Amino acid sequence: MKNPFGDQQIPGSYHNLKERMYKKVSANVNEQIVSLIVKAYEKALNEENIVLTRPERNRLLSQIVKMVTDDIIKRFDKPSTGMEK
Q1: What is the mean pLDDT of each successive set of 10 residues along the chain, which is 85 residues long?
Q2: What is the DSSP letter of 49?
Q3: What are phi and psi of 8, to 5 degrees?
Q4: pLDDT score at 30
Q5: Cβ contacts of residue 52 below 8 Å, gap of 6+?
Q6: Most buried by CB count within 10 Å: which residue of 51, 58, 68, 72?
Q7: What is the 3-state secondary structure of the chain?
């Protein structure tokens, strides 16, 4: 809903709600997700006894993070609650 007095969003609008929820959720969750993925990645490398150079580790971690986040997004794109496997 547009504000009749300008281009600002009306405080109770969906856009405003979405932005407020995003800020609250991302502030609390982003670091936890990154930490969880990095710990799981390091554990998996150790279990496999894989030795990589720092650039190789970082490149592989980046690829793994992308794959994991793509999987998470796919779960939420399902018509149901998004939490089923």
Answers
A1: 55 79 87 93 95 96 95 86 52
A2: T
A3: -70, 150
A4: 86
A5: 45, 60
A6: 68
A7: CECCCCCCECCCCHHHHHHHHHHHHHHHHHHHHHHHHHHHHHHHHHHCCCCCCHHHHHHHHHHHHHHHHHHHHHHHHCCCCCCCC
Instruction: Report yes or no: 57 and 45 within 8 Å, Cβ to Cβ.
Output: yes
Q: How is residue 27 written in tokens?
A: 């502030």
Residue 84: both structure tokens together: 């089923």
User: Can you give the length of the chain in residues?
Assistant: 85
Contact, 19 vs 27, CB < 8 A?
Answer: no
DSSP state of 9: B
User: Which residue bears the tokens 């405080």?
Assistant: 11
Render the burial of 1-20: b for 16+ CB within 10 Å, e for the rest.
eeeeeeeebeeeeeeeeeee
